[in-house]
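FYI - complex with nicotinamide-adenine-dinucleotide, inputs then prediction.
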Amino acid sequence: MANKIIMGMDGKLQVPDFPTIPFIEGDGIGPDIWKASVRVFDTAIQKAYGGKRKIDWLQVLAGEEAFNKTGSWMPAETMEAFRNYLVSIKGPLTTPVGGGIRSLNVALRQELDLYVCLRPVKYFEGTPSPMWQPEKVNMVIFRENTEDIYAGIEYMTGTPEAEKLLHFLTREMNVKNLRFPNTTSFGIKPVSREGSERLIRSAIEFAIANKLPSVTIVHKGNIMKFTEGAFKNWGYALAEREFAGNVYTWQQWEKTKKERGEAVANEEMKISAIGGKVIIKDAIADNFLQQALLAPQDYSVIATLNLNGDYISDALAAQVGGIGIAPGANINYKTGHAVFEATHGTAPRFANTNSMNPSSVILSGVMMLEYIGWRDAAEKITNAVGRTIRNKTVTIDFYNLMKEATLLKTSEFADEVIRNL
Ligand code: NAD
C-alpha cells in the first residue's frame, strides 16, 4: 500500500519514492521495445536520484499475449491494476478484429474516463523530417478522448436501428436533405459542454503552468455549429470566466477592436503577451493543418475534439520524425489516472526482430516521469535521446533517411541512450 501513487485532497499526486507502476509490454514489436526502454528508465532514475528513488515495475497482461495466456484480451486484473495504481505505461496492443471486441485502447480510455489524449510534438535536432525548418515545431496537443464520433453511436443502413432513426429524422424532425435516405448509414457526434470544458481547462492550465504562449482551439465550427462550434464558444467562455487574470482571448481582442479600434486591440494583445498572459485563439481545422506546415512557430498548445485530434496528432508527428518517435498519454487530471503509451501500433511484421525504434515508448516514459514530478530523470533521458539522434546512431527508420548514420538494433539504441545519460 505504501508504495502506491495516490491523488491528494489538494488535487496533486502524492508519489512515494518507490512507486509501483504497472506496465504492459505490448504485442508485436512491444516486447523488444519495452525491454530496451525500461533499461533507460531505470538507469536514468538511478543516475538522477542515486538509489533514493526507484520504480517497482508490475507486469500486467493485455492484448494478444493476454488472450493466449488467459483467454481474455483485457483481463479484469489488468484493468484493476490500472485503476488501483493510477499511473501506468503500455506498449502497442493488437486490436482484435471482429467479434464485437472494442479496441483495447478505446476500452481503457473509456473505463478510466481518460479524457485528455496528450501528445507533445517536439523536434530533436538531426531527426529526418519533411519540413524545411522542423525546429520551429514545438506543440502540445490536447485531444478530447471520450466523446465525438468515437462514442461509437453508429447504425448501418438496412438495420432496424437505422430505419428507426431515418423514420424519426424524416417524420418527426422534418429532415429533408438526406440525399439517398434508403442507403444511408448514420453516425452520431455527441459533444457536451462539460466534456469540452474539462479538456480546454486542462489545456489552459498546462499552458499557464509551463509558461507557454498560447492555446489554440482547433475546430470545424463553420460546418458543425452545435458540436465543433459550441466547443470553441464554450472554450472562450471558460477561458474568460475561469482564467481572467491569466489569459487574453482573441474574442476580447475582436471586441476591443470593434469598440476602440485596431490599434488599441493590438496594444492590448502586445501588453498581455509581454506580461506572460496565455493568448487564447482558435483555428478552423483545415486551415490549422495548413498553418502547422507554413507557420508552426505560431502554435503552442492545441485543444481539439477527438476526430480532429486523431488526424492532427499523426500529421504533426510526421513533421518531426514520425510515429517511431512520437510519445503519448491518456490522462484524467481529476482522478489522476494516466496511461502513457507508444503511439505506433504493433508492426507485427517486425515482431522479435529487435530492429524498431524504441523512442516512442522511451519518450512516453519521459512524459510519465514529468507527470509524477521526477523531472531530473525525465530531462536526462530527453537530453540523451537528443544526443543519440544528433550523433546519428539510430534505428532503421531514421537510418534509411539519414546520410552517414550508424544503424543500430533496438537494444543497441537503448545502450547508446544509456551511454549518453
Ligand atoms: P503500426 O504503427 O503498427 O505500423 C505501421 C508501420 O509503421 C510499420 O510497418 C513500420 O514501418 C512503422 N513503425 C511502427 N512502429 C515503429 C517503430 N517503433 N519504429 C519504426 N517504425 C515503426 O500500424 P498498423 O500496421 O496499422 O497496425 C498494426 C496493429 O497495431 C493493429 O492491430 C492495430 O490495431 C494496432 N495499433 C495499436 C496501437 C496502440 O496500441 N496504441 C496504435 C495503432 C495501431
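The longest strand covers residues 116-122. Residues 39 and 414 are 7 Å apart (CA to CA).
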